[in-house]
Design brief:
The complex is a heterodimer of chains A (516) and B (214).
Chain A: H1 58-63, H2 83-101, H3 105-108, E1 109-111, E2 118-120, H4 124-129, H5 137-146, H6 152-160, H7 165-175, H8 183-222, H9 229-232, H10 249-269, H11 283-299, H12 309-324, H13 333-337, H14 348-368, H15 378-394, H16 396-405, H17 409-418, H18 427-438, H19 443-458, H20 460-463, H21 468-476, H22 485-515
Helix pairs in contact in A: 5-6, 8-10, 8-14, 10-11, 11-12, 11-14, 12-14, 15-16, 15-17, 15-19, 18-19, 18-22, 19-22
Chain B: E1 10-18, H1 24-33, E2 46-55, E3 58-67, H2 74-77, E4 86-92, H3 96-100, H4 102-112, E5 118-124, H5 136-145, E6 149-152, H6 161-176
Parallel strand pairs in B: 1-3, 1-4, 4-5, 5-6
Antiparallel strand pairs in B: 2-3
The chains are: A mainly alpha (516), B alpha/beta (214).
Chain lengths: 516, 214
């Protein structure tokens, strides 16, 4: 049982790594025993707690709580680096693994008395070959992440079924190319990305007086109003923020207007982002979102902030901040969303790391559907029309009925595509959906459209008994509050199946055309 | 399914436009559901609600489309204007910018909407008098010079919301006999004309424009 195993042919690949010792497995938080720090010991970050109106101190508020007193740092010990933690983590996985396989520990692992490292006795190949037999998704993922170079396809396939929260941040980082798969360079590469983000923020911070003061003077004196610079700006390539010249007064005058305008729109939308969810009222979370959206916008003028981007950012902020929390036990997404403060559970440095991860992940996700966000949004229009085609194919009766009562896909599907279904499903289910979307090469850009089709078809029968108004009202507020994971799994597999079927059909259609 | 709503004599499509954050969605929810929320979600794309009112013994059903305000959305929202017979152009009385942009919104209507569309300028958030940045006189003069009707509202304290919608609906109704409400002048966004829309030019009522409506 321990030395033989079912070997999945497709799992035999590349040279095998030799050892398993001392590998960090995601963020195995349950093996940690740090106590929460009482709030009285902690000096509060200065930041607003209420949604703030556009105010004179607005620009200084922008930087609130990014740079905070380093005095707090000692309260938040670094989490991952310690070797003993890693050993504990490896032991934890082993335990799980063995329980799963019913084998004695000594059969699989060596505990070296010399260096205390745990090494793998069984050939690596066999361990890998058993991955498909492991029933626990969490364990499967743990084992994959232990690998020196996890296979991307297997990683995708595993995350497709849903990722447990302790591994999610790392897996998302890997699938979004923020953290490399190669174990040897994971830590250093991730650190470099985070440093790069901090440098961007530092530059932005240094430049703030140039544009914010200029803009305020202008507003106060002459009644020059900010309008439509964004609309007038043709799509441009990325901006290199480090090349901006602080002495270029004319440039700053122009930039000032555009940037202020972006910031105002972001500021307007932050209090309107999941207003019924406590975590999004937390000042630190809002500040993170503000900075990410703003930095993204000024770095990418051609597709700068657009309403709905704030929603796409939310799962990323939740996943990466939750990942960095110093807690005695894993916090579920549901519990995290209900938190009214994160302040006692996370240090500045970790919060910044989470912010950096969320920024890069956001940049990557938006780039996957960037035609949704350029001027005129051709991506959305194209995807809506694709959605309509799919529904016509998989549920012709529904498509015909909607046409008959005058419902157009543009009337309801715009938001579905623009916000990647953030508004249509309960938050924790969206996270599950994103696991699956990241589990496909073209999940965000393509499978998502099939998912929208599966979603509308779920309501097919109901819709076909409705008139125009009832149908539109249902579609713009889908009754999914009571949904659970199994509902989402159902539409996900439906979407996947349709995607494959329609792809095969189109391949065979093309084949026929070639032959004829 | 509210069946009581199904009986109506006229169906008018009205759009709500104006800058982001001026309170369009709250005007709509106040009028159609008597609800208001300080922190409602931003509108992405369009949202839709209806309400029927009585006017001169006729039942008028308003089909109101609420649109996203961010200007980068304009390219796509223009498609929603088709078939609209009325537009509430909303600005925020505490935000001068939103009033200055009214001109742009008018141009957008001119470019994309029916030439006969009835437009009403709405200065919202009148409960915030102490922060008022656009005077009633200025707005009123602007409205007059552009041939728009004008009203100040507050979705928060529910002042003039009912009046604004009733007034534009009755104006559309009064102009109905003369203007673009012929049968079949439906848009992509209105329900199928032959089945659900009843837009009859009020044959005998053409001359009764002065009649007090609603």
């Amino acid at each position: 049982m321990t030395t033989t195993g079912y070997v999945d042919a497709e799992l035999i690949y590349d040279p095998l790594p030799k050892q398993l010792h001392g590998r960090a497995i995601g963020n195995a938080r349950e093996h940690m025993s740090l106590k929460p720090i009482p709030s009285t010991n902690v000096e509060r970050c200065s930041s607003e707690t209420k949604p703030q109106k556009f105010a004179p101190n607005f620009f200084s508020a922008f930087w609130a709580n990014y740079i905070v007193s380093p005095a707090r740092e000692h309260l938040f010990p670094k989490r991952r680096a310690s070797e003993s933690d890693e050993k504990t983590e490896v032991r934890g996985v082993k335990q799980l693994y063995l329980t799963e396989n019913g084998a004695p520990e000594s059969a699989v692992f060596n505990n070296s008395p010399n260096n205390g490292h745990t090494t793998l006795k069984t050939p690596r190949k066999l361990l890998r070959s058993r991955i498909p037999n492991v029933t626990s998704q969490a364990l499967k993922m743990d084992l994959l992440l232990l690998d020196e170079y996890p296979n991307r396809d297997i990683l995708r396939r595993t995350v497709w079924n849903g990722c447990c929260s302790k591994n999610r941040a790392q897996v998302w980082r890997m699938l979004l190319d923020i953290e490399p798969l190669d174990y040897e360079i994971r830590t250093s590469a991730l650190k470099a990305r985070r440093t790069e983000y901090r440098e961007h923020m530092k530059l932005l911070s240094d430049f703030t007086p140039h544009w914010s003061a200029q803009n305020q003077a202008e507003e106060n004196s002459s009644g020059v109003h900010l309008r439509d610079e964004l609309l007038a700006t043709p799509d441009q390539g990325p901006v290199n923020i480090s090349s901006l010249d602080s002495n270029d007064a004319e440039g700053w005058a122009k930039r000032s207007r555009t940037w202020t305008k972006i910031l105002r729109q972001i500021e307007l939308d932050l209090p309107r982002t999941h207003p019924d969810t406590p975590i999004f009222h937390v000042a630190e979370i809002r500040n993170i979102m503000r900075r990410i959206l703003f930095l993204y916008s000024i770095l990418n003028p051609g597709k700068s902030y657009m309403q709905g981007m704030n929603e796409i950012l939310t799962p990323l902020v939740v996943v990466f901040v939750n990942d960095q929390m110093v807690v005695t036990r894993e916090i579920s997404i549901e519990d995290f969303l209900m938190m009214h403060s994160v302040h006692d559970c996370i240090g500045t440095e970790h919060l910044e790391d989470a912010e950096a991860d969320a920024f890069w992940a956001f940049t990557r996700i938006v780039s996957l559907v960037e035609d949704n966000f350029i001027s005129d949004q051709p991506g959305i229009l194209r995807r809506i029309s694709r959605l309509e085609q799919i529904v016509r194919k998989v549920d012709p009766a529904l498509a015909a009925y909607l046409l008959d009562i005058g419902v157009e896909f543009l009337q309801f599907a715009y938001r579905w595509l623009n916000c990647l279904l953030m508004r249509e499903l309960p938050f924790q289910l969206v996270i599950r959906v994103w696991d699956a979307l990241l589990g496909e090469e073209d999940g965000i850009s393509d499978l998502h459209v099939y998912l929208c089709a599966a979603l509308i078809v779920r309501f097919s029968e109901q819709l076909q008994n409705m008139d125009f108004e009832e149908a539109i009202l249902l579609l713009q507020r889908l009754p999914t509050e009571g949904w659970n994971i199994s509902d989402v799994d159902e539409i996900l597999s439906q979407a996947h199946m349709w995607k494959e079927t329609l792809r095969l059909e189109s391949v065979s259609f093309q084949g026929q055309r070639k032959q004829s | 399914m509210a069946r009581s709503d199904d009986e109506y004599d006229y169906l008018f499509k009205v759009v709500l436009i104006g800058d982001a954050g001026v309170g369009k969605s709250n005007l709509l929810s106040r009028f159609t559901r008597n609800e208001f929320s300080l922190e409602s979600k931003s509108t992405i794309g369009v949202e839709f609600a209806t309400r029927s009112i009585q006017c001169e013994g006729k039942i008028i059903k308003a089909q109101i489309w609420d649109t996203a305000g961010q200007e980068r959305y304009r390219a796509i929202t223009s498609a929603y204007y088709r078939g609209a017979v009325g537009a509430l152009l909303v600005y925020d009385i505490t935000k001068k910018d939103s009033f200055d942009n009214v001109q742009r919104w008018l141009k957008e209507l001119k470019d994309h909407a029916d030439a006969n569309i009835v437009i009403m300028l709405v200065g919202n958030k009148s409960d915030l008098q102490h922060l008022k940045a656009v005077t009633t006189d200025d707005a009123s003069a602007f409205a007059e010079s552009n041939g728009l009707s004008f009203i100040e509202t507050s979705a928060l304290d529910n002042s003039n919301v009912e009046e604004a919608f009733r007034s534009i609906l009755s104006e559309i109704y009064r102009l109905g006999s003369k203007k673009a409400l012929e049968k079949g002048s439906t848009s992509n966004f209105a329900p199928n004309a032959t089945q659900t829309i009843v837009i009859n030019p009020p044959a005998d009522e053409g001359k009764t424009e002065k009649a007090k409506c609603c």
